[in-house]
Amino acid sequence: MIKKGHNFNDIYNYRNSKYFVETVIRARMWEQGANKLAIFARGMPKLL
User: Fold this and answer.
1) If pLDDT is split at 50, 70 and 90, which confidence band does 17 have?
2) Which residues pair with 2 in a beta bridge?
3) Structural domain boundaries of the chain?
4) For a Cys staple, 11 with which of 3, 5, 17, 40, CB 3.0–4.6 Å?
């Protein structure tokens, strides 16, 4: 879900992207091997 603007390529226009990027950076500090750590992300459906 884009929170502001119309630039779909700007990661900071999305609500939780900032936190996802921070989490990936922290996880990679803990486990640096690219094949040893799998990171999954899933968008939550918007409830009406």
Assistant:
1) confident
2) 14
3) 1-40
4) 17
